[in-house]
Design goal:
Layout: E1 11-14, H1 30-35, H2 37-43, E2 47-50, E3 54-55, E4 67-71, H3 78-90, E5 94-99, H4 109-116, E6 128-130, E7 140-141, E8 149-151, E9 157-160, H5 175-191, E10 195-198, E11 222-223, H6 224-229, H7 234-244, H8 246-249, E12 252-255, H9 265-269, E13 277-279, H10 301-315, E14 321-323, H11 333-337, H12 345-356, E15 361-365, H13 386-397, H14 402-412, H15 449-454, H16 459-471, H17 476-481, E16 483-487, E17 494-501, E18 504-511, E19 517-520, E20 530-531, E21 537-539, E22 542-545, E23 550-552
Parallel strand pairs: 1-2, 1-15, 2-5, 5-10, 7-11, 10-12, 12-13, 13-14, 14-15
Antiparallel strand pairs: 3-4, 6-9, 8-9, 16-17, 17-18, 18-23, 19-22, 20-23, 21-22
Helix pairs in contact: 12-16, 13-14
The structure holds 1-O-alpha-D-glucopyranosyl-D-fructose and calcium ion.
1-O-alpha-D-glucopyranosyl-D-fructose binds at residues 60, 63, 100, 143, 163, 199-200, 256, 258, 328-329, 387, 414.
């Protein structure tokens, strides 16, 4: 495999609104990010992906962009952004922007012009179609609930939005529109961003006949997921995008791709793939319900282990996936992937270890490094996320009580990961001296960066060691390029693998069970590189793991 500059790096996602506020408005900002660069550097981070900071009405927290060339004033100015680029560069760090080009905001100038004249030049930047017999053009359900078609008042036209109605989908069949996007992307690359995390990109290909599909719910609609799976040919659009933009700059790209066709992996992340890498969501999708969050289900350990090893095997000779436990759309990893009894420091270190040492590019999400948890809200009003509001409604329509629907949100809400970063135990977790835009998790008194910096056994200090190991001169090569060989897959509760290259082997052994487990193998005289407990019990032919223990040998 041809080596790339980013292969041996560690990435971190910043959700800027909740990271660090420097001007008392309760909203994190660019100056906040700049002031924490040293913190991230010390943690071992090289690549920083920042969720959208462009001008936006914030209906979907910046994933609805009204001007691609402006920094939203809540976050700061373009000068501050340039300072961020320069400060990152000084520290050998790379800034990756979020690229949201499946849709824009309904407040974008293009859409405002389109609304005035759906049949005109800008109408063709979007998908305007006439309704059928008083109904929308097709029975697509948007990701956030309800029809994906919104009626334009006073006309026969509807426009398509796969997400919120304030996020109209852009017409990728219009060369003029595409040219505007490409110019914009190149403008940011010229500025010096290292690349992009590419939002919801699988959605760009549409069946232009917009045929209705078999309904999958009592509303007579069919989910956006199925709509995407019913079309072919996204690859041509992605190649064109790459050729006109990323390729010329050797930009790093990480795509958010949910429902790729199975045999397309090479085309997506192979040596000449559409993208540098893409997230491995195989574990995340395990909990998906048929209809929504209300029928989502807990993840079984065996499935979790199986799908991760399957992904590792599939990309082995193809390329690198980006491994994650959390992001801004998902509940916290500690709550989601750990059994209740292991939802503590030991368990969190164990989960972090098995994820970070996989083959692929590790991404941490802000707060993961201190083991932040889901946040309980007292009522639906306390949630801000548009997706959560929609799922709450769907749960009630399916017959759940208010209390039950709220519990569904507690387990699934995207706001779980969006509560402010917990820096210290001063009011509002040191995130802001103003009023935070979203509730601060009350557990900040104990779970915060400052406490953990002072405690040598903290999750934070463990993560530092873990990332340092991954990047150490001695083990970097095997941990970056070595094969990932699953071990003890017949043993319940054991997540174990070896990373192997040129005769060097690193074992990662974790016990997710409640019982001690003895694993036999030639672990004798192995050097303990990491251990989340104080002891490591070896004898001649075996090693014994306590519950929630992880060893790296
Ligand atoms: O998410 C795309 C996506 O497929 C989401 O519907 C995801 O499945 C959902 O959030 C899980 O609950 C991206 C962004 O990551 C998300 O924050 C945006 O809301 C969305 O695109 C629209 O831009
Ligand atoms: Ca601010």
């Amino acid at each position: 495999m041809k080596k790339q500059w980013w292969h041996d790096k560690v990435a971190y996602q910043i959700y800027p609104k909740s990271f660090y506020d420097t001007n008392e408005d309760g909203i994190g900002d660019l100056n906040g990010i700049i002031s924490k660069l040293d913190y991230l550097k010390e943690l071992g981070i090289d690549i920083i992906w920042i969720s959208p900071i462009y001008q936006s009405p914030f209906v979907d927290q910046g994933y609805d962009i009204s001007d691609y060339y402006k920094i939203d004033e809540r976050f700061g100015t373009m000068e501050e952004f340039d300072t961020l680029l320069a400060e990152a560069k000084k520290r050998n760090m790379y800034i990756v922007m979020d690229l949201v080009i499946n849709h824009c905001s309904d407040k974008h100038e293009w859409f405002q012009k389109a609304l005035k004249d759906p049949e005109g030049e800008y109408g063709d930047y979007f998908y305007f179609r006439k309704g059928k017999n008083g109904n929308p053009p097709s029975n697509y359900r948007s990701y956030f609930g309800g029809s994906a078609w919104e009626k334009v008042e006073g006309t026969d036209y509807y426009y398509l939005h796969m997400f919120a109605k304030e996020q109209p989908d852009l017409n990728w069949n219009n060369p003029k529109m595409l040219n505007e996007l490409y110019t914009m992307i190149n403008w940011w690359l010229e500025k010096g961003v290292a690349g992009f995390r590419i939002d919801a990109i699988i959605n760009i290909k549409k069946d232009l006949e917009f045929k209705s599909l078999k309904p999958d719910g009592p509303d007579g609609l069919v989910s956006a997921w199925r709509v995407v799976e019913s079309v072919n040919g996204v690859g041509e659009l992605l190649e064109d995008l790459k050729k006109h933009t990323f390729e010329k700059y050797q930009a790093f790209t990480v795509a958010e791709v949910f429902n790729m066709k199975r045999d397309e992996l090479v085309e997506f992340v192979g040596e000449n793939g559409h993208f540098s890498t893409m997230f491995d969501f195989s574990a995340h999708t395990l909990s998906l319900g048929e209809h929504g969050w209300y029928d989502s289900h807990p993840i079984r350990f065996e499935d979790f282990r199986r799908v991760i090893f399957d992904s590792q095997a599939e990309c082995r000779d193809v390329g690198f996936l980006a491994n994650i436990i959390e992001n801004h759309d998902e509940p916290r990893g500690a709550n989601r992937y750990l059994p209740l009894y292991a939802q503590n420091d030991d368990g969190i270190k164990m989960l972090g270890t098995i994820s970070v040492l996989l083959r692929g590019l590790p991404f941490l999400y802000q707060g993961q490094e201190i083991g932040m948890r889901n946040c309980r809200m007292e009522s639906i009003e306390e949630y801000d996320d548009i997706n959560t509001q929609g799922e709450y409604e769907m749960a009630m329509e399916a017959g759940l009580s208010k209390e039950e629907a709220l519990e569904v949100c507690y387990e699934n809400s995207r706001d779980n990961a969006r509560t402010p970063m917990q820096w210290d135990n001063s009011p509002n977790a040191g995130f802001t001296t103003g009023t935070p835009w979203l509730k601060v998790n009350p557990n900040y008194k104990t779970i915060n960066v400052k406490n953990q910096q002072e405690d040598k056994d903290s999750v934070l200090n463990y993560y530092k060691k873990l990332l340092a190991l991954r990047k150490s001169e001695e083990y970097k090569d095997v941990l970056t390029y070595g094969d990932c060989v699953p071990m003890f897959t017949q043993e319940p509760d054991i997540f174990a693998y070896a990373r192997e290259k040129d005769g060097q082997t690193v074992y990662v052994l974790a016990n997710f069970g409640t019982e001690k487990k003895t694993l036999t193998g030639c672990f004798k005289n192995r050097k303990v590189l990491l251990n989340n407990k104080t002891e490591a019990i070896f004898d001649d032919a075996s090693v014994t793991l306590e519950p929630a223990q992880v060893l790296v040998l």
